[in-house]
UniProtKB/TrEMBL annotation:
PROSITE patterns: SIGMA54_INTERACT_1 (PS00675), SIGMA54_INTERACT_2 (PS00676), SIGMA54_INTERACT_3 (PS00688), SIGMA54_INTERACT_4 (PS50045). GO terms for molecular function: ATP binding; sequence-specific DNA binding. Residues 149-379 form the Sigma-54 factor interaction domain. It comes from the Bacteria. It comes from Halobacillus aidingensis. InterPro entries: AAA+_ATPase, AAA_lid_NorR, Homeodomain-like_sf, HTH_Fis, P-loop_NTPase, PAS, PAS-like_dom_sf, PAS_fold. One of its GO terms (biological process) is regulation of DNA-templated transcription. Keywords: ATP-binding, DNA-binding, Nucleotide-binding, Transcription, Transcription regulation. This is Transcriptional regulator containing PAS, AAA-type ATPase, and DNA-binding Fis domains. It holds the Pfam family HTH_8. Gene3D superfamilies: 1.10.8.60, Homeodomain-like (1.10.10.60), P-loop containing nucleotide triphosphate hydrolases (3.40.50.300), PAS domain (3.30.450.20). Coiled coil: none annotated. SMART domains: AAA.
Amino acid sequence: MLSMLEDYRNQVLETLFGNVEHCIVVVDREGCISYMNESYCRFIDVDQTTVKGKHVTDVIENTRMHIVADTGEEEMADLQQIRGDYMIAHRIPLWENGEVIGALGMVLFRDTDEWKIMNTHIKDLLLELETYRNQMQQQNGAKYSLHDIITSSPDVLQLKEKIRKTAHSDVSVLLRGESGTGKELFAHSIHHLSERSTKPFVKVNCAAIPEDLIEAELFGYQDGAFTGAKKGGKPGKFQLAHGGTLFLDEIGDMPLRAQVKILRALQEGEIEAVGAVHPQEVDVRIIAATNQSLEEMIQDQRFREDLFYRINVVQIDIPPLRTRRGDIKILSKYLLQKVSDRTGKRVEEFSKAVEDVFYKYHWPGNVRELENVIESAVHMTDGETVQYEDLPAHLQKESAPVPEAETLKQIVEQTEKQAIQKVLKEADGDKSLAAKRLGIGKSSLYDKVKKYNL
Ligand SMILES: Nc1ncnc2c1ncn2[C@@H]1O[C@H](COP(=O)(O)OP(=O)(O)OP(=O)(O)O)[C@@H](O)[C@H]1O
């Protein structure tokens, strides 16, 4: 009787949907496929005779049919990525006697060609939008505001408050913090909140420009200033930032010669282009960033003290991620959403094991590293939850369970090994610093590093 009913139901589904060009799938309460029409099978290149009874996540990429069958909440015109392209799908729960018994899914285009045309059209529109965004950004240059700085750390919240109070004035700001802590994000936010927000925000990465080109890059050059110079000359970053903000990233890498010129620009409000006869007036606000100790560089005479005091009017010290572990959870949630939106792959959460690894890891590359790890894990994951196995190998290795110790000697050794490992990591492999922090001699540390094979 049951199988007759089943046959009858299949016949009805086949009559209704068998010959339509729309892609149709029906799943039961558990998310297993009870029907998938020929169009859909052709679309995703599966054999219709084998799909029935399989869990829908094993057959359709990035599907949410099983979720709709579970929650009873319909999803209309939802973007779903299949084989790197977007399609648009309706997912409708099926009800019987007040209970959800499954769900019906439908791809919204009559045939795949039509969808391909629409997909190209959407991509075109997205590209156009991107072009406009870039144009706007080129005119202004700062795309982030204070709202984009995600944190629950009292220290960082305090920094945000400090920015709110000082951004409107024209004082120079020095952003300090390890690589990837968000210095550029802060620089954008300051510009956004300042009176100069409608004027350009221009970034210079001092570490990326060869020493002999830096003056031309910063102050521009006149026609015929040197061999290979562009005809008609070229404005420098100072001229481009006129009226707005100049963000000097990695200022510790600025050559001394250029430092003198920058100081002059700040003190006297004028610059001299390479090959120019007369100075030129400029009005820029300086935000500088560094992850080096400028004080040490001053002692070594690699950084000018007068420039340091000129740029260090307001100082923002961004703490590394490992000292604000409370931020790891909210940042990873936020970044997962960001990566999901960017890649079009819907991944919703992390498993508990992944959350634990994230919490314990020391994040030497800070938020940038967290974002990269999440991006790589999202590419690896097959479902909606990032699993431990989806993490990059170095994170899995870091968090491999430590075998349980048996004797007191083993316990002591294991604890000692872990302590040394931790401090070495925090000191970025600097053994002198690590030895100092551990309160032992350097040679003793070397012995232990050798003993534990660290
Ligand atoms: N609090 C935060 N909230 C959201 N995103 C963040 C936060 N901090 C950093 N990020 C993100 O992390 C990445 C690295 O940030 P950013 O480039 O600002 O770091 P940085 O300190 O300037 O690094 P570097 O010194 O290497 O230039 C960016 O994608 C940024 O958007």
